[in-house]
């Protein structure tokens, strides 16, 4: 008898899904808790792996795009000029 067989009378048909606990002995509530815990742990493992890979990456590898930097500096300077002119005009109105 193969583990992956599609025989509906196979005793291994449902038991391979949750090999750590006997699924026939767990209540639906306990089975939900175990499944939820397993999902949370697996997602946290994936997130930890991504964080590890990001920390392992060299920081000098990434350099910002010069045109993006120029546009960002121009935008900040324009905002500073707009803010100073609006504050001067509000002082004149007082």
Automatic annotation (TrEMBL):
GO terms for biological process: vacuolar proton-transporting V-type ATPase complex assembly. It holds the Pfam family VMA21. Keywords: Cytoplasmic vesicle, Endoplasmic reticulum, Membrane, Transmembrane, Transmembrane helix. InterPro entries: Vma21. GO terms for cellular component: cytoplasmic vesicle; endoplasmic reticulum membrane. It comes from the Eukaryota. The chain crosses the membrane at residues 33-52. This is Vacuolar ATPase assembly integral membrane protein VMA21 homolog. It comes from Rhamnella rubrinervis.
């Amino acid at each position: 008898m193969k583990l992956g067989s599609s025989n509906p009378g196979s005793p291994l048909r449902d038991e391979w899904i949750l090999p750590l606990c006997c699924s026939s002995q767990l209540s639906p509530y306990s089975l939900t808790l175990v499944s939820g815990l397993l999902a949370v742990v697996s997602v946290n493992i994936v997130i930890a792996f991504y964080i590890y890979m990001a920390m392992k990456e060299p920081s000098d590898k990434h350099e910002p795009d010069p045109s993006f930097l120029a546009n960002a500096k121009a935008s900040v300077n324009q905002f500073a000029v707009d803010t100073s002119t609006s504050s001067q005009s509000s002082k004149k109105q007082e």
